[in-house]
Amino acid sequence: MAQDKVKLLVIEDEMSIRELLSASLKYAGFDVSSAPTGYAGLQAVEHHHPDVVLLDVMLPDLDGFEVLRRLRAGGRDVPVLFLTARDAVDDRVTGLRLGGDDYVTKPFSLEEVIERVNAVLRRAGKGTPERSGVVRIADLELNEQEYVVRRAGKAITLSPTEFKLLQCLVHNAGRVLSKAQLLEAVWSYDFNGESGIVETYISYLRRKVDAVEPRLIHTVRGFGYVLRTPAAGE
Description:
- The protein is α/β, with parallel strands linked by helices.
- Helix content is 39%, strand content 20%.
């Protein structure tokens, strides 16, 4: 029998970050629930019994430190990974002294969050979620373990750079990524007016991935690119 998915709880008041984390972690194979406030997060812990909590420090009611205090006071030893825009050393020390397990400073990459979640799980003896390594968007399949891509069941040959670009778009499905963000994520350097390389590789991907309908890679003029299923009427 397949092992149950690892359950994550995201407690984050900023909706865009909460939804992005939830969607990306679901694609990574986790069972994800979320809460927008500290009190709601405490209730969600009781209801969902998560294996890991991703906890924002700056919440509108209880701050993340107080949420953690209450969890530990109530006998909850669930691993906690702090998410915060504050990068002061004393904040990190406070979180760890209260019983936090790790600390990620915003802005962070989704890959970093996933790696830190997996590290926390390993330290907690829970292992990583059992998953096939296949991410699916509509009829697009991206196998991250075998580096194989299929569209409508048909294998697509991509170069390593094309695969990394598609992987970035897939893990941010529904989110518009600027050329600068794609340059940093795929080519690992900042935007210096060299948007042509992104446009070129997006064109390569479209010829290979969007050779059949519906088109999945969309241009949002003035902003960047997004991978998503088309809305009704498009």
